[in-house]
Design a protein that fits this description.
L,D-transpeptidase catalytic domain-like; two-stranded antiparallel sheet; 5 helices; cell wall biogenesis/degradation; peptidoglycan synthesis; Transpep_catalytic_dom
């Protein structure tokens, strides 16, 4: 009898230990047990999804740029320079992410732009050599090396990264152009081109000319005011 009692006690202890061991392999979520096998399976699925996202996007070799609607030009804000600048020229302020088209009377149109991301900014003086409406886009060789899945060429249209207009700068690969994603305007995310909203680049293309000087600066230091009354000379006149 004592042996039978001892056997039952040992059996009960073993069962309890097994239950504890089984519970150690599970958590609870929403009132249900979650086993380690479930956690491992979810981790494997998450890693598979991350791996899929890391794969480069592959576009068609010859991509259709889509529709080419008539886009009305939109006149941007006018600012005032604190010093004289060459009328009819373009100044790019990389730091402020602004492009200025210089008007008479120290005034200028001010366009918000996207600029080159880290490692892709530049400075210098060029002239506009071509102005294209709904330009096609052929990614340069350097860009294909960084993104092998890019198309060979994209025809002009709303899906084209250059948008509604492109103003070509000298013999470089850089351009002032529109966009297929206006949310990127104002950011540092290009490969060295200057990206405007489509309605703004249509406006700029209507007033710029072949031969227009484009001065690209890391930062414009001449001083800019939002109104004529903010200019130092105007403030001095008021004080007198």
């Amino acid at each position: 009898m004592r042996r039978w009692s001892a056997f039952l006690s040992a059996l009960a202890a073993g069962l309890m230990a097994g239950q504890v061991s089984a519970l150690a392999l599970e958590n609870w979520a929403d009132g249900r047990p979650v086993f380690e096998s479930d956690i491992r399976r979810q981790a494997e699925q998450d890693e598979a999804q991350r791996s899929e996202r890391r794969k480069p996007v592959v576009y068609p070799k010859f991509m259709d740029g889509g529709a080419r609607p008539d886009i009305a030009p939109a006149e941007p804000s006018i600012i005032y320079f604190n010093q004289n600048e060459e009328v009819g020229s373009i100044i790019v302020d990389t730091q402020s992410r602004k492009l200025y088209f210089v008007l008479p009377g120290r005034r200028a149109y001010e366009y918000p732009i996207s600029v080159g991301r880290d490692g892709f900014t530049w400075s210098g003086t060029e002239r506009i050599t071509r102005i294209a409406e709904w330009p096609s886009w052929t990614p340069p060789q350097e860009m294909h090396k960084r993104q092998p899945g890019l198309p060979i060429t994209v025809s002009g249209g709303l899906r084209n990264p250059q948008g509604a207009r492109a103003l070509y700068l000298g013999n470089t690969v850089y351009r002032i152009h529109g966009t297929n994603n206006e949310r990127t305007v104002g950011q540092a995310n290009s490969s060295g081109c200057f990206r405007l909203k489509n309605e703004h680049v249509v406006h700029l293309a209507s007033i710029a000319k072949i031969g227009t000087k484009v001065k690209v600066l890391q930062a414009y230091t001449g001083g800019v005011s939002q109104s004529a009354s903010d200019e130092p000379s105007a403030r001095a006149t008021v004080r007198r």
